Input
Amino acid sequence: MSVWEIVELARHPDRPYSLDYIRRLAPDFIELHGDRLSADDPALAGGIGTWHGRTTMFLGHQKGRSLKERVARNWGMMHPEGYRKALRLADHAAKFGFPIVSLIDTPGAYPGAGAEERGIAAAIAHAIMEWFRVPVPIVAAVIGEGGSGGALGMGVADRVIMLENSIYSVASPEAAASIVWRDNSRKVEAAEQLQLTSREIVGMGVVEEVVPEPKGSASADYDAAARALDEALWRHMKPLLDQPSSELLQHRYDRFRYIDSLISAEPHFGPKID
Amino acid sequence: MAIIERHREEVAIQGAELPEILLPTNCPGCGIALEQEELRSHNYVCLNCAHHFRLGADVWIQLIADSGSWQERWTDVRSHDLLNWTVPKPYQETVERLLEDGLNEAVRTGTCTVANQPIWFATFDFGFVGGTLSIVAGERLARGMEQAASSRTPYVLVSASGGARMQEGVLALMQLAKVNAAVGRLHSSGAPFFSVLTDPTFGGTAASLALLGDINIAEPGAAIGFTGPRVIKQATYADLPPGFQSAEFQLAHGQVDMVVPRTELRPLLAHLLEMYP
Output
């Protein structure tokens, strides 16, 4: 499969979205809304559900299925209010000792004037910093598109895993092409250069695991994809539940502080991992 | 601000000692013919229209640090071509050429004094791949912040950056988390963090450390934001009003505390360092 085919799978309109997974992981899921400042960002779904016998806080970018819902969900591109809502729900989880599961599936934060006017850069910056202080276990999974700072703003966790046909990138291929060549039609070349597939990302030591998808990709069998994701998320979450929070936060710090150590130790790293 | 007046005397503008920079023949702000010596003694701010010229790291270091106080750290940490990046040109060649030109990565850091008060200082260098946040840049920033946190030393940052470096892929993105983890420690330590945002500060740099200062200070006219105007127009077909994402716009939208001319910066920092002992 070519890199671009993987990008298309990751973005496929039939691919399961966060709420498809969350409702299978926790059938009693209750959605919670609002940043308690000014708005509710529908691009981020958040709420509580019972998962493996304990109340868990679920967060996830939500793209929307019908055109109407896509518009309402803004294609999963969060505004500043979304990051504030995420931190509000993280505080909620910390107060009650709920672990957090974060599902990442966004082209990026919303690249529009309104987001800029309301401080999208500072909202993401603040979120990234604050995740390091949330004293409950966090496991994140990239389930589709992990686009840029908009994804990382929801991606600081104790463990990060990726579904097989998902991507994680410093910028969307279109944005990277626009930045490097000033021509966003060179997205295919950009995707190849960026090394954004799950296999390449795990090879760099940036995520812990790649979760295999059912035959024909996650779109073909939502239940099987959800079972695979559930098993992997729980396997990573379980050992974190018994860790004292000081240890948890130190390990989270170290995980990101030395995330490039595999590369630093191997300066001639470069060939793609197969 | 009488106390700042006192610092203005004490902390003379170091313009005359600044390195020379490449200048256009006419000011891009007002079109007036430029005089290198005159501009230099005015910290590279146009005397006619107050246009602030972009400065490299070497100039910023001289501009902020007391003469002879600068001690640079971790200069030998180097970039590598991690992704076999070849188009439009090989990344390794780009980096090597810039190193030959005497630039040393997009962030330089070290210790110095400002009006005899010790600080940790870091400055982006826009001349090095657009001041982009790379593994090396992130490493220097995180190490400096950790040192400042453990010694409770004030931290001063000057930003000029296009964001994360495309050519280092997702590892460049991860620098936002690596650096912000360290910013969190710096804040927890109680050491003050003064962030100076210059033209331009965008993308991953704006979405990580640059806007997280205890006090955010922007230079007049500096463009500051997350998504650049070209990408916003491509994505949303929006017409952006004049002054969109300017320092003054960010002041009006609550993102920075003040817009301060470069000629006032050292006296201001000297005074702030006294106020946050």
About this structure: Residues 268-274 of chain A have pLDDT under 50 and may be disordered. Strands of chain A lie at 30-32, 44-51, 54-61, 100-106, 138-147, 159-163, 167-169, 209-211. The first strand of chain A starts at residue 30 and ends at 32. Chain A touches chain B through 60 residues (CB under 8 Å).
